[in-house]
Amino acid sequence: MRAAVVKTFGGPDAVEIAEVPLPEPAAGQVRIKVAAGALNPVDLYVRSGAFGGAGKTIGLGWDVAGTVDAVAAPAAWQAGDPVVALVPGVAEPLAAHAEYVVVDAGQVAAAPASVDAVHAGTLPLNGLTALQALDLLDLEPGASLLVTGAAGAVGGFAVQLAAHRGIKVTGHARAGDEELVRSLGAARFAAEGVPAGSVDAVLDAAMLGEPALEWVRDGGAFVSAQPGRQPGSVRGVRVTAVEVRADGAQLAELVRLVDAGVLTLRVAGTYALEEAAKAHARLAGGGLRGRLVLVP
User: Fold this and answer.
1) Cβ contact 256:234 at 8 Å
2) pTM of the full predicted structure?
3) Integer Cα distance of 126 and 157 in angstroms
4) CB 207 within 8 A of CB 224
């Protein structure tokens, strides 16, 4: 089968489409025939060598939407089931941008019924990151939350999920994104920032760091969407970062919210698998409002 990999770190041209062995599921795993999978900023970091693995062949891609192709018992899935899954890992020889991928059965959820596979392929990584970040903040209904990068994929999901939980959301993004951010459920919008200490919590999807920390009240909470990018704690603010993990039950809850119309899946464009390098170059160019999706 074909898979997008890097053998030498570098720019978009480092992405190769390689012929690799078809993976076989072990006990408790399923093999998915991939229909679509989003390209994410983390893939650019993997490609450039930010996570190590020099001298190895490294697969790319975290998101997968497709159909179950093979099952190794025991697993609660059958061949032909439409599914989505998160394929975590930054230095593995095979990842989600491939024609087939093997994952643990517990990482899998039934695909949304209301959208196609291309849109479904944008959900796992960014949706789980937003959900798990909100769980770390542990805010009660009525609390105030500022989401940086609110027009982006993680930030947009965070705005919608928080608003659905009854949290008062301020979306922070570029001025031109105000209409979009408000449409996602933000009660307030900020392009420049807010008064110091004026919100209960910040979810820092744009990795602004210390400037965003100043907006949190004393004793509030701050979570970064990327481990290692969070500032040090001040004024008793609880500071942490989300390290996304695969969770089929949480993914199933996100799917339910998609089908209920709570979550919006945004696609900026599609590329064939063999155009992966071109997709990497487009993502690196910035300015997207939605995910690029690779379609094997």
Assistant:
1) no
2) 0.97
3) 7
4) yes
